[in-house]
UniProtKB/TrEMBL annotation:
The keyword Nucleotide-binding does not apply. Transmembrane segments: none annotated. The lineage of its organism: Bacteria, Pseudomonadati, Pseudomonadota, Alphaproteobacteria, Rhodobacterales. This is 4-oxalocrotonate decarboxylase. Signal peptide: none annotated. Residues 87-250 form the Fumarylacetoacetase-like C-terminal domain.
Length: 254
């Protein structure tokens, strides 16, 4: 039987020290259920160090990313206080293994949400929406993983930046999103690439956290998923995301 606490320690240490490790699946293929247990155990280690859970991220929310990993459902991970990067602030490339950044939409929750909910119920629990950047960083060599690997690795969660919040009355179904690096366009996409509508990612988040006995809580951030491919991060980059009608969010890489 797999030693789930030992696997959680390996992945937590890999993230904490920014040292890549071999895929867990090379020796111990994990079911999704066991992989989510590993994720929860590795997050317990972060909480014990003083980090707080501040929300969740949805991953593999575009058809392109699902096809890349060979799955047909989204994944989720937990966001902690230590992953938050100030809007317009700096992050150190050296604190990560091989970080990438991707353009997202974030929800800020005002009411609890959990289980099977409709899109209308999900929307009613949202305080605000915002442009967001997610830093992902697989703790596996070469950013290679199977589904169990990536779930256990907290869905590659590494950092996030939230832009100015906008009222939920804003229609987020199909917003143009432009990611620039040092003023040059790196990726363009639409919020519609996030499961067809970012609100579907929130519905999925409510469903998936419930399977772990958790809920989305007031004040939580929910990252809905990426609208384009992720861009590798290097020192000296100024990263900015402009979301049509919603605003901008930026971060500098040192
Ligand atoms: O946020 C994401 O969609 C990433 C999920 C994990 C897969 C990856 O690291 O690309
Ligand atoms: Mg993401």
């Amino acid at each position: 039987m797999a030693d789930l606490p030992a696997i959680a320690e390996i992945l937590d240490e890999a993230a904490r020290t920014a040292n890549a490790v071999a895929q867990i699946s090379e020796t111990t293929p994990l079911t999704s259920d066991d992989a989510y247990r590993v994720q929860a155990l590795s997050l317990e280690r972060r909480y014990a160090r003083g980090e707080r859970r501040v929300g969740v991220k949805m991953g593999l929310t575009s058809r392109a990313k699902m096809a890349q990993v060979g799955v047909d459902d989204v994944v989720w991970g937990r966001l902690t206080s230590a992953m938050r990067i100030e809007e317009g602030g700096h992050l150190s490339r050296a604190a990560f293994v091989h970080p990438r950044i991707e353009p997202e939409i974030a929800f800020l929750m005002k009411a609890p949400l959990s289980g099977e909910v409709s899109a209308m119920e999900a929307l009613a629990a949202v305080e605000a929406v915002a442009p967001a950047l997610e830093v992902i960083d697989s703790r596996y060599h070469d950013f290679r993983f199977d589904l169990g690997d990536v779930i256990a690795d907290n869905a590659s969660s590494a950092g996030f930046v939230i832009g100015p919040p906008a009222p939920v009355s804003h229609d987020i179904a199909n917003l143009g999103m432009v990611l620039t690096v040092n003023g040059h366009v790196a990726e363009t996409g639409s919020s519609a690439a996030i499961m067809g509508h970012p609100l579907r990612a929130l519905v999925a988040a409510a469903r998936m956290v419930a399977t772990a006995g958790e809920e989305l809580r007031p004040g939580d951030i929910v990252l809905a998923g990426a609208a384009t491919a992720a861009v590798p991060l290097m020192p000296g980059q100024a990263i900015a995301l402009q979301v049509e009608g919603l605003g901008a969010v930026a971060v500098n890489i040192g």
